[in-house]
Amino acid sequence: TGYAESGRMTAVIGAGRVGKATFLGALAGEENQTKGNIYYNGHEASALVRRRATGYCWFGGEQTVWHGTTTVHEALVLSASLRQDSETSDSRKLEAVQSWLELLGLTELAEQPLELCSAVETRLVAIGVELAFSPSVLLVDEPTTGLDETGAKRIVRLLQQVAYTGRTVVCTLGDSVSSTDLRAFDRLLLL
């Protein structure tokens, strides 16, 4: 049993191959759960409800579905256009995209093609693409794995900023997680 709160960051830790990614996938409604119940705001949530309320980023293997010449701004705009409620005006969607670009430190890279982004920038764009549709929960699988210490700290710091917007942020962390990374989280869940 565990829980995550809005406005807070929760780290899911455990040995390799223990099922951290599967756990996040179940929370996101992407994996079939075999036992137990998942609640959002105190109500049991179906897989469909979880998919609609959750942004889900994973960084294992190739996942990019964007063409290399797509710009950072275009990637976020497309996500907002396709995934936000159809009743939300285009101007509101663009405002949301702009605010996420600013919060994630991507404003100066807005017109840069994705193929020219660094590893850290690519992860921030992926997070921005999920945030562009305004989910209440952000799930991120191993956001710091494979990054140098500076890049890892930048990702964790910006995920904290996302949590401060009132969203629930849940991240799995790999075996190489540092104590500095762990201290940034409000809650730890051990699998």
UniProtKB/TrEMBL annotation:
GO cellular component: membrane
Keyword Zinc-finger: no
Gene3D superfamilies: P-loop containing nucleotide triphosphate hydrolases
GO molecular function, one term: ATP hydrolysis activity
Superkingdom, natural source: Eukaryota
ABC transporter domain residues: 5-145
Membrane-related topology note: Multi-pass membrane protein
Pfam family, one: ABC_tran
Subcellular location: Membrane
Keyword Transmembrane helix: yes
Keywords: Membrane, Transmembrane, Transmembrane helix, Transport
Entry-linked InterPro entries: ABC_transporter-like_ATP-bd, ABCG_transporters, P-loop_NTPase
Full protein name: ABC transporter domain-containing protein
Species of origin: Phytophthora sojae (strain P6497)
Taxon lineage: Eukaryota, Sar, Stramenopiles, Oomycota, Peronosporomycetes
